[in-house]
Design goal:
- The structure holds two protein chains of two kinds.
- By secondary structure, chain A is mainly α.
- Chain A is built from four helices and no strands.
- In chain A, helix 2 runs antiparallel to helix 3 and helix 3 runs antiparallel to helix 4.
- By secondary structure, chain B is α+β, with helices and mostly antiparallel strands.
- Chain B folds into four domains: 158 residues, no CATH class; 247 residues, no CATH class; 115 residues, no CATH class; 101 residues.
- Helices cover 66% and strands 11% of the residues of chain B.
- Chain B is built from 22 helices and nine strands.
- A five-stranded antiparallel beta sheet of chain B has the order 2-3-4-5-6.
- In chain B, helix 5 crosses helix 7, helix 10 packs antiparallel against helix 15 and helix 16 runs parallel beside helix 18.
- Chain B is globular, with a radius of gyration of 27 Å.
- In chain B, 52% of the residues are buried.
- Classes of the chains: A mainly alpha, B alpha+beta.
């Protein structure tokens, strides 16, 4: 029983040390805040990835014959526009503040 | 060392409580080190639970009957594999397994779930911690596997029907599925708590969901195989509430796996996906509750036993928490895109979702009705197979058809003229198959004929998709046809792995229809020397043998089998009597034909002292396709789960862009 209790206590100590590790490793951190991604950028990345993925799939389905020429022509323009708009908006976000206005005006 | 087991569980409980509280605080106040510390607590909780599990395994291996759990679930003459499988054979052990798998999967999902983003991940830790706290509380306070007693000379042994190799694998597989569904639920809740409506939580948990769903599916098939060979009634699935308990979350997860594709590709159905993931997780908790509470066997067991109340309270809390978050985040979850056409891939996915969820809820009502009836009106009511079979047919046939239609329709919209051209071959194949089957006599079951005709349509659509895709890859420069096929699958594992899973479902349907609607059943009492026929088989009862095994007395009727006059050898069927457990089990004889997939299934229903045996004989066409479906299902799931380096690179580039923007 004593051995079991000692082992149990040892386990508890090891766990406490492991849990306290982030504080032991960085007692005085430069920055202790969680990074938060920008919502607008996330939404644009989603839009870009969705449009590019859909374009890729459409091209392949057109090649296999699952999508007819007529359906392909009807869909491809809209998807290209969506992808281009998302990419342009992302580039505008990444541009230095001095260039943002210009990009926005062009866009 | 029961004290070490108890101490380890108390430590695990403390750690899960810490992960919940500190994790919640860290996410709310955006404290990085505290969030990491909570994450570490989840991993440490897994380690502490693993120590407790090790203590229990050691006690089982040593037949240490001073552990009440070991004495109640094993005996000293039980073979080692079954002795160790007693870990999940009883209530306390299976709750410990839940906690072990949950903390393990939770820690791993958090460690590998960076794609969800720090903001979401910070909330996932307290959510998983909360669920783990519930199970840790159960094993510490309510159902401890480490209760001790003065060791009796012998244990009570294991239920006879559990002494089967399939029962060693069935429960852990199901538990991996049940517990695995906690991961996408926790990430969905994390995303809602972090007020993130984007698709990061879906991308981060895609493989976890697929793995949980695959484990649940394989676990059910292994359970069906166990029921077929061990329970000895001539079937593999009986709409038993505990069987339904595993089927319901699997159906909800199947709907979820399809509908998340719409969210990923079109940004739609965000609310619906959260509803589905909540439903799947709540049903997995409900499944554990049904299996473990004894509520199905008797409503009074629920009233008397503490675990039922705990589970009902926890399920209610999970539902209330999930629905509160869902309703308060509704404005952020609104989609900006709409369905463009009712004839599109996403529309067929939506129809599939509605049918799957309707079927799932129908089963749920069938399970709940007797419980509610007894609880509210004091009346004992049962819902028989007729109820379930009606809805299985009503929802199953359209689902089968959609499985063939979906892959042939383009995303967004498809013109009717294009559809006509695409459907030409699969429709032709279906009509041809229907005519041939009718000529072969399959019309004896109109339902079977319709299901097989639909199956031919689905099979043709799957073959067509692979053929067209391979041809396109060859045209794109693949050097050989096999290389083109390999490139096709490698470039879109999810799509083509999904088709392999569809092929598995198809095999399952063909096997189920063949073995149930076209089976032959004969019953006859024979004395040694007499014979009977079943379909094309003749069975001559030769003798009755008795022998002893390690822990049972076996009685076997020996039968000579022939088919159309050709000798096929000898089979043995009978019963085992387990003296310690004081139980008797049916030991059936199964002779499989590898060429046709047919089984000759013989039960010795009753054995009289004078040697007369009441035989029940089934001839089950195509039944082995069900088990082959399991292997194909695993193959399809592996193809889908296999990491895609191109996708990994794309997601890494995306994360890098986000990180550099944050910096």
């Amino acid at each position: 029983m004593t051995v079991a209790l000692v082992l149990g206590a040892l386990l508890a100590v090891l766990c406490v040390v492991w849990v306290a590790r982030p504080f032991l490793r960085e007692p005085e951190p430069v920055d202790d805040t969680l990074a938060e991604p920008e919502a607008r950028r996330l939404a644009l990345l989603d839009e870009r990835d969705r449009a590019l993925g859909a374009l890729k799939q459409l091209e392949f389905d057109h090649r296999t014959g699952t999508v007819s020429d007529e359906d392909y022509r009807a869909a491809v323009g809209g998807l290209r526009r969506e992808a281009a708009e998302a990419i342009r908006a992302l580039d505008a976000l990444d541009a230095p503040p001095s260039e943002r206005k210009e990009v926005a005006l062009v866009g | 060392m029961p004290e070490l087991g108890r101490a380890a569980l108390v430590v695990a409980l403390g750690l899960t409580v810490y992960a919940t509280l500190a994790g919640g605080l860290a996410a709310r106040r955006r404290r990085r080190r505290l969030a990491l510390s909570a994450q570490n607590a989840l991993l440490a909780a897994f380690a502490a639970t693993a120590v407790a599990a090790g203590v229990l395994v050691a006690a089982l291996a040593r037949h240490d009957f001073s552990f009440v759990y070991v004495a109640q679930t094993t005996s000293s003459d039980l073979p080692l594999a079954y002795t160790l499988s007693a870990f999940w054979g009883g209530q306390e052990g299976s709750l410990l397994l839940w906690l072990l798998v949950l903390t393990g999967l939770g820690a791993a999902a958090v460690a590998f779930g960076r794609r969800a983003g720090q903001d979401v991940l910070a909330w996932v830790v307290p959510v998983i911690g909360g669920v783990a706290t519930f199970f840790a509380l159960l094993v510490v306070v309510v159902e401890s596997p480490f209760a001790t007693q003065v060791a009796p000379a012998e244990g009570a042994g294991m239920t006879a029907s559990l002494q089967n190799p399939y029962m060693i694998a069935h429960p852990p597989l199901l538990y991996l599925g049940y517990v695995g569904l906690a991961i996408p639920w926790a990430f969905a809740m994390g995303a809602l708590l972090a007020r993130r409506a984007d698709e990061r939580w879906i991308v981060a948990t895609r493989r976890w969901t697929l793995a949980a769903w695959a484990f649940l599916g394989v676990g059910q098939l292994v359970g069906a195989k166990w029921a077929y060979e061990e329970v000895g009634w001539g079937g593999y699935f009986a709409w038993d509430p505990v069987e339904n308990a595993a089927l319901m979350p699997w159906l909800a997860a199947t709907a979820f796996l399809h509908s998340v594709m719409i969210q990923e590709k079109r940004g739609m159905l965000r609310v619906w996906n959260v509803v589905l993931v909540v439903l799947a997780f709540a049903l997995s908790l409900f499944g554990t509750f049904l299996t473990r509470s004894g509520i199905v066997a008797s409503i009074h067991a629920f009233a008397q036993g503490p675990i039922g109340v705990w589970f009902v309270t926890f399920i209610a809390l999970v539902l209330a928490f999930s629905l509160y978050l869902l309703f308060t985040r509704l404005p952020q979850l609104r989609s900006r895109t709409r369905f463009e056409s009712l004839v599109s891939r996403e529309a067929t996915f939506l129809y599939n979702n509605l049918l799957l969820v309707a079927f799932c809820l129908t089963i749920l009502w069938g399970v709940l009705f007797p419980i509610l009836s007894e609880a509210i009106r004091g009346e004992q009511r049962t819902v028989g197979p007729g109820y379930y079979n009606f809805f299985f047919k009503s929802f199953g046939l359209p689902l089968l058809l959609l499985m063939g239609i979906g892959p042939l329709i383009a995303w967004r919209r498809a013109s009717l003229r294009a559809l006509g051209r695409t459907f030409l071959w699969p429709l032709g194949a279906a009509i041809a198959a229907g005519v041939v089957l009718l000529a072969l006599g399959a019309g004896s079951s109109p339902l079977g004929l319709i299901a097989y005709t639909f199956s031919a349509f689905v099979l043709a659509s799957i073959v067509l998709e692979f053929a067209r895709g391979t041809r396109a890859r060859r045209a794109l420069g693949a050097p050989t046809w096999p290389a083109a096929f390999a490139q096709l699958v490698a470039h879109n594992r999810r799509r083509y792995g999904g088709y392999v899973v569809h092929a598995a479902v198809l095999l399952l349907v063909i096997g189920v229809i063949g073995s149930s609607l076209y089976q032959t059943v004969r019953e006859e009492a024979l004395r040694p020397g007499q014979a009977m026929t079943a379909g094309e088989y003749t069975l001559a009862y030769r003798s009755l043998d008795e022998r002893d095994s390690q822990n049972a007395q076996e009685v076997r009727a020996v039968l000579d089998v022939s088919r159309n006059g050709r000798n096929l050898g000898t089979i043995e069927t009978g019963k085992n009597t387990y003296p310690i457990e004081q139980q008797t089990s049916n030991e059936v004889a199964i002779r499989s034909d590898p060429l046709t997939g047919e089984d000759l299934f013989v039960i010795a229903d009753q054995i009289d002292p004078d040697g007369t045996v009441y035989f029940k004989v089934f001839v089950k066409p195509l039944v082995n396709l069900i088990w082959i479906a399991g292997l194909v299902f695993v193959l399809g799931s592996l193809v889908t789960l296999w990491p895609d380096p191109r996708e990994a690179r794309r997601l890494a580039a995306r994360s890098e862009r986000l990180r550099s923007a944050e910096a």
